[in-house]
Amino acid sequence: MAKYLAQIIVMGGQVIGRAFARALKQEYQASQEAAKRAGGGKAGASRVEANFKTGMTLEEAKEILNVDKLEPELVQKNYDHLFKVNDKTKGGSFYLQSKVYRAKERLDQEMKHETTKQGPSKENIM
C-alpha cells in the first residue's frame, strides 16, 4: 500500500512540475511577443515596464475606460463616471473600482510618455 502511495505522489509531482515548466515557457513567449508588439527597442522596453508596473496592457486599459484614442478629457470623464458607479458605499465593487483606477493610471503613463516623446510644443516655447 505504501509503495502505491509513494508512486502516486511521485507521479503527481512530475505532472505538476511539467505543468509549471509549460506555464513558465508560455509566459516567457508572451512577454517576448508583447515586447515585439510594443515596438521593440527603448520604446518597447518602456511600454513593457509600464505594463508591468500597473499590471495591465495599454489595450486593456483602453477597453476598461472605453476609449479609442488617448484624449485626456474623455479619459477623465469616463474614469470619473466608472469610479463613482463602482463606489463600494453605493453598492459597487471595490475590485472593479481598482481596475478602473489602474486603467486610468496606465493611460496617464502612456499620455505622459507621448507628450515627452513629442517634445515641447510651440505654445510652450513662446
Describe the structure.
The structure is a single chain. By secondary structure, this protein is mostly helical. The protein has a domain at 55-125: Helix Hairpins (Orthogonal Bundle). Helices cover 80% and strands 0% of the residues. The chain has helices spanning 2-37, 41-54, 58-65, 72-85, 94-118, 122-125. Helix 3 (58-65) crosses helix 5 (94-118) and helix 4 runs antiparallel to helix 5. The longest helix has 36 residues, at 2-37. The mean pLDDT is 83. One of its GO terms (biological process) is protein import into mitochondrial matrix. Residues 106-126 are annotated as: Disordered. InterPro entries: J_dom_sf, Tim16. It is a peripheral membrane protein.
Helix content: over 70%
Output mean pLDDT. Answer: 83
Radius of gyration using CA atoms only: 22 Å
Query: How many E strands?
Result: 0
**How far do the termini sit from each other?**
86 Å
Name given to the CATH architecture of one domain: Orthogonal Bundle
Largest sheet: none
Q: Find the CATH superfamily of one domain.
A: DnaJ domain
Order of helices and strands: HHHHHH
Quote the CATH topology of one domain: Helix Hairpins
* Beta-strand residue percentage: under 5%
Helix segment count? 6
Query: Residue ranges: pLDDT <50 for 5 or more in a row?
Result: none
User: Regarding CATH, which class of one domain?
Assistant: Mainly Alpha
The coarse silhouette is flat
Query: Helix/strand/pairing class, anyone?
Result: mainly alpha
Keywords: Membrane, Mitochondrion, Mitochondrion inner membrane, Protein transport, Translocation, Transport
Family: Belongs to the TIM16/PAM16 family.
GO biological process, one term: protein import into mitochondrial matrix
Main location: mitochondrion
